[in-house]
Fold this protein.
Amino acid sequence: MKKEWKTQNEDGSYTVRTCGWSPPGDHPVGCGMKLTVKGGKLVKVEGDPEHPITNGRLCVRCLALPEFVNHPQRILSPMKRAPEDRGKDKWTKISWDEAWDIIVPKVKQLKEDHGAESIVVFGGTGREACLYYYPLGFASLGTPNVCYPLSGWSCYGPRCSITDYILGAGYPEIDFAGTYPDRYDNPNYVLPKYIMEWGKNPLMSNPDGFFGHSLIDMMKRGTKMICVDPRITWLGTRAEYVLQLRPGSDTALALGLLNVIINEDLYDHDFVDNWCYGFDELKERVQEYPPEKVADLTWVSAEKIREVAREFATNKPSAIQWGLAVDENPNGVQLGHAILSLSAITGNLDVPGGITLGPPAALLGKWRVETRSNLSEELWDKRIGAKEWPALSTAMATTHPDETLDTLESGKPYRLRMGWFNSSNFITPTCSAQPDRWYRALKSLEFNVVQDCFMTPTAMAFGDIFLPLPTFAEHDGVVVTHFGRNAVFLGAINKAFETGDCKSDIEVCIELGKKLHPNMWPFDSVEDFFSKQLKPELGIDFNDLREMGVYQPKYTYRKYETGQLRGDGDPGFNTVTGMVELSSTLFEAWGDDALPYFKEPPYSPFSTPELFKEYPLILTTGARKFTSFHSEHRQIPTLREIDPWPEMEIHPETAAALGIKEGDWVCLENMFGKAKERAHLTPTIHPKVVHATHGWWYPEKKAEEPSLFGVWESNINTLVPHKHIGKLGFGAPFKQMICKVYRVDSLESDVGFKA
Amino acid sequence: MARNGLLIDYQYCTGCHSCEVACKNEHKIPHGKWGIKLTEVGPFQVTGDKWEWNYIAVPTQLCDLCEDRVAREGVPSCVLHCLGQCMEYGPLDELAKKMAEKGPRVMMFAPVV
Ligand code: SF4
Ligand code: SF4
Ligand code: SF4
């Protein structure tokens, strides 16, 4: 990429090169773009053809960036509100100094009177905040309680933890030539023959920073797809195979595939003999899952299971990309274990064109881990749910999310008194299960700080202080794909202009940190901070990164052969046995089965047949659209013009039987809650399954309580129960609930959104 | 002068809408109007596991093939931003040759006379 990252144009405007990361947008995808600014205002967004991964391509969220940046409802200065006015639109603008003068003494007083553990930081998913909400908690505020309020920690965390326990490595990802500047043409690169997409639709979701349309790049070059999905997606219509399974039956399917591969002797003997532990036990276990039995459980025919198992095992290299469906499943640890076993015994781990593995330590992750040194052993032990859930708390530095709700409700083992909401709008149906219950429980907090770009339902309900966040276009930063756990590049986020009086996550961390724990924050500026992260690890400073545009680390294949996966430098994997643990020593130590097994979802035609009579449809939620990132973007006219309303998908036969037509508003309801969405009839979904989108609220609706921007109207997460999680504390049933569906009056005139 | 056009290999059009918004940005087209607009065919089952489901972006009379922009930067806005990288711009005769080498799902548009 060119060295100049800022250029002056003839008409007086200037153009800044940058890489994107929400807010607003997405996971750390870091798409390359050029932002043109005139008279202090963002006037143009263009893709950057020089970017090695995205080559100029941009999704509609960044193409609509000027509407987000210049939106009349953006909050551009800090605000305060009296605690008795929570839920009312009674905010007063204040300066940052005044905000600190309120926050700092309050934090000090709470720590003195009740201990630092009485403060909890809530962090939102996917946004830049993901890198900073831990340090914000540990080193700026000094609390051990940092919470990602998603039941069962059901996003990314489980997959990372399972990988840690089974492989002792960073995140597994398709080899999409991401670290090669010349990409797919690099002579060391081999194209995957098959990619199995398991419960994932990267075209829309760009998961964890994987640029989703890389799949299209590879398909054009000859890669074939296998989709494991309860819906036939657009990608599914371009796939070689679609395994359209019953939601939540995934682990049975994975064990069925393993059964065929092992019994038909299609596995990689060399890899299994040299690098795997527990193969005989796994072989014995999969005998319980013959394809015919699995077909009954999953709705996928035995014939297809056999065919896909054979194709996948005999076409090397191939890759599996596992999705959120692995996490949002109380049986998900076993599913993840089975998928990693499939990847391992077919010889596809850490080979060209297979599945790449990150090193055990995250890129630029050292500092984040070290911020924990600010907490005494005694304080760290007070982390909510750490003792009860060792499998979760060993790998994740957070509280246990479900235990956190219990603590808010019960005041046990101690009362939480202050909440800091960092880019987390979780009474909107984004991550929490039973957001209505969280909503009631959160009222017990004495003092709340919210950081966001817009007034959200969560901020309106709870904020006492609102601290405005800049968009990625308005501050300096670093974007690292896969949150550093198997990064294909680091990109410079360059401040192109300023809007209002906003401070980025890292600016807030440093400023607050200097006031409360100055020894943890020896940085003069944001630039100095990033240079101090980059220099020891990569030998470059922040300015070098700006001039490079992106930095692609070198990737080494077969690291287990050369000792690069282990701290001691011995060959093998960084696990207890030094091997890929097909049978897990740790799961057993934590009281679970050492081998993968299938368990029915908590509510299903088989586990609750009586309830299923009343709620006769299987509900799966959370598939993404191009036009939003969870609850972001609902106020952006261009994006609402494309997707104006929350959409649920239903099979035309099922709809006909219920008297539902295309575009009708319907209510999805079960024993836990209900939500209204607009029906879209499609034959690509199974007649017994419905899908509902998440993340909906209506910025155009009344802000004050009880409306809170209509947050309870289409709140699909109210149908998902609290603490129905797996034995090790991971995984909740967001994608395999039951419900009924009936017609209701349209919400459209009521809400009154005009695109 | 040879006419130019757009070639769209809709085997790889994922329905991402980037062309629509990129075009609106380039030409300041208001809501409710488009220089190029996605259409959808399907989804319907053909036989067994075979499905038909296509997105096809269709230029309108507001499309001027990015005349000014192409003179300046060489490539239309929709073509640069297309996530599926399934759009090509060029003289019709060249596009026709390319079309013959592609699969069955391919379309050519010549919106400017
Ligand atoms: S994926 Fe979309 S939102 Fe994210 S950086 Fe790329 S263009 Fe922007
Ligand atoms: S060529 Fe230009 S004007 Fe025509 S559809 Fe594409 S972006 Fe719009
Ligand atoms: S930008 Fe390309 S892939 Fe996206 S909808 Fe338009 S033609 Fe299709």
User: Anything to note?
Assistant: The mean pLDDT of chain A is 97.
